[in-house]
Amino acid sequence: MSLRAEAERWLRTKGTDQWSDPETGERAIAKWRASIDEGRAWVVVGEGGTTLATVSRGPVDRDFWTDADHPESALYLYKLMVAREASGNHLGTRVIDWMSRLAALEGRAWVRIDTWRTNTGLHAYYERLGFQHVRTEAPAHRRSGWLAQRRAGEMALPHDLLHVGSPDDADASRDLPHQRADAPSEDLTK
Which of 52, 76, 152, 168 sits in a 20 to 30 Å window from 132, CA-based? Predict the structure, then answer.
């Protein structure tokens, strides 16, 4: 939750209203807590045990994605947050690449996102990482709705992958994407 609070403060400095509405924020936090409770959220832990980032996956959001989108063909990425102390190191990109590899291992065709409709800086960030804008939906009860997708398995930083699993338990991560042995030491742990 500290990453969420930090992200809210940072977003306000960027001139976006993302996550600043209390009602929207409360709903989003409730969904995020459910992701955590259901084991669909991961954290990136740096040396010394510092939490550097988090990401969640979730079910298809039917406010945005329809049957015509073949929702079962995608992994839905939610709540990507990177600690300000880790910004500038491409950690968000590496987390997205990890999710992309996970989607490919599951036999999915896409990694999909929905982002705040008015956060054009975030849209540009995802487009630089290979996401293609699909469409923008605007249900009255939601502020998110800028929909984009990227092919599963596509990498923005293929030579800088994250290690997955506990450093103490190499077997726990054998079926998930792995990092090169000579890469930096952040871990993506459940």
Answer: 52
